[in-house]
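Entry 14. Ran structure prediction on the chain below.
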Amino acid sequence: MSDLRTTLVQCDLRWEDPAANCAMLEELLGDLGESDTDLIVLPEMFATGFTMNSREMAEPMGESTTVAWLRRQATARGCVMTGSVAIEDGGSCYNRLIWARPDGSITHYDKRHLFRMAGEHERYGAGNERTIVELKGFRLLLSVCYDLRFPVWMRQQPQAEEHFEYDVILCIANWPAPRRNPWRTLLAARAIENLAYVIGVNRVGEDAKGLSYAGDSMLVDFKGDSLLDRPRDQAFLSTATLPRQPLEAFRDKFPAWRDADDFEVFL
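Output, structure tokens:
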């Protein structure tokens, strides 16, 4: 069984300045590559900060310099790079998580739950399907920030005997410091109820609206225990391993999924 080496990038972001953010991240990552990690995770809207200026800042999907940068970085480093970008596609704007592979291919997930308290639902379109990707034998459910509050959308539904939909929930965020306790609590809750690892990556610093971000980026195991949990308010880059064998062993020992309720999500 393979393990999954995961690098969390918790950083401050320059407001609405993709070129500066990409340059900053490239310097921060240094020569990090395939000998060190399998997956590099950047925060939500890592190129701009959580901007509602979608019409001016959203990049056309086919011509996005930020998506092109992610692809180049993934190829050069020999590992997957992921983070979300404000994207224009088909006349609508999306908060789009990009999953860039070393071979140059990409998969994307459009944020489903838009943060109405900031007016995100008025500036971006909502995604309408879940996205699960595979890496080194792990299946990862992609999600963005506010999605974390909606357990039905993220709920694991084993498709057959002992066959799980996914092994990891990946959630990237711009989650403000005043609500850091819900962030930490919900990361653990999603892990426990779905018998899965959770990767949560948030930013630090203060944005142009005066909102502060505490970070609290974490790796959480299937029992809700932290595998990686750094002090708040500090930028960091850190790699940890998600081991496969303990996950499989715990699912066999504690098969709570067998008693789960069947349900269907209507969009």
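Residues 4-258 form a domain with the Nitrilase/N-carbamoyl-D-aminoacid amidohydrolase fold (CATH 3.60.110.10). Will compare against last week's run tomorrow.
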